[in-house]
Q: What sequence folds into this?
């Protein structure tokens, strides 16, 4: 019997190219390919040098290893697994909080994950066990994503084989179910590893937990401090519209959903800085009419190839999805 599943998508559409995320994926892949070339050219002799100089070894710590250890991997499956999670979560988080903040939070998550790794090893800074991989920083991405889009769906692809018969399919689970389950699973393994300190097991799971908590806390601070300040600054720049909007109103717009025609929230909005949603059509129309969103705001929903201007929605009757 064989069962395997992997996250393959989110119900989120980015509004800008995720340059930081793609650069991180490229750098991780490049480091692995270069190390693989050296491995074959030296008959495996380069592997020891890579472990000693690029991986984080607490007993023989070098400051640069705190950063290089985030970009090394023990094998192709280690690399591919990490890059899938980095692409899915990194692209969304980068789009929602901006490239500079995402890069800073990503590196911070990786550094704290290393500190937790050292704290949970039996000998701490005297341990010779090396640490490498992007999973600590990627765990920070998952913590950030949970606080930003807890109600979003994460899509999975599954593969199942039993007695030479093979099945595959897809399913979706809310982020508030998937990510906390993953976190609690790693937290349990980290605690069990700490109890079994004679073997040093579970320390990698502790690094995952540390990275996750940093990402979660970073977005908590961002939403409490940075986002309100940005919103206040944006409101101060709002100017009266000097020309009338050329729109066709099919029906009176109400901020309250229609009682006889319940709507499904399928519209996502992007103001050039962050993405919000989903909203119903009536909610979007009301926000535009009341000035809560500007004419330059873009919207997207399933079925559209590109983002569209939100004023186009006034040509649709209420409830049209």
A:
């Amino acid at each position: 019997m064989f069962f395997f599943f992997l996250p393959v998508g989110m119900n989120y559409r980015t509004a800008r190219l995720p340059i930081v995320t793609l650069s991180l994926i490229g750098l991780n892949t490049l480091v692995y390919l270069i190390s693989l070339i050296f491995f074959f050219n030296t008959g495996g002799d380069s592997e020891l040098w890579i472990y000693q100089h690029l991986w984080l070894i607490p007993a023989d710590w070098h400051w640069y290893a705190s950063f290089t250890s985030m970009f090394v991997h023990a094998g192709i499956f280690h690399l591919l697994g990490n890059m899938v999670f980095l692409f899915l979560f990194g692209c969304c988080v980068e789009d929602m909080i901006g490239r500079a903040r995402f890069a800073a939070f990503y590196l911070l998550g990786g550094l704290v994950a290393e500190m937790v790794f050292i704290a949970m090893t039996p000998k701490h800074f005297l341990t010779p066990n090396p640490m490498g991989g992007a999973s600590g920083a990627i765990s920070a991405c998952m913590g950030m994503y949970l606080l930003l889009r807890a109600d979003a769906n994460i899509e999975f692809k599954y593969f199942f084989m039993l007695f030479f018969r093979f099945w595959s399919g897809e399913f979706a689970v809310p982020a508030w179910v998937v990510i906390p389950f993953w976190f609690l699973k790693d937290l349990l393994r980290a605690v069990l590893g700490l109890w079994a300190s004679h073997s040093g097991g579970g320390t990698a799971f502790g690094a995952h937990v540390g990275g996750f908590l940093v990402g979660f806390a970073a977005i908590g601070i961002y939403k409490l401090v940075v986002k309100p300040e940005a919103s206040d600054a944006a409101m101060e720049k709002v100017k009266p519209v000097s020309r009338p909007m050329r729109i066709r109103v099919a029906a009176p717009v109400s901020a309250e959903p229609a009682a006889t025609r319940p709507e499904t929230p399928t519209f996502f909005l992007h103001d050039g800085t962050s993405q919000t949603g989903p909203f119903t059509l009536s909610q979007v129309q009301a926000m535009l009419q009341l000035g809560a969103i500007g004419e330059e705001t873009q919207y997207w929903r399933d079925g559209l190839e590109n983002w569209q201007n939100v004023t186009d929605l006034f040509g649709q009757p209420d409830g049209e999805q």
Remarks:
- The chain has nine helices and seven strands.
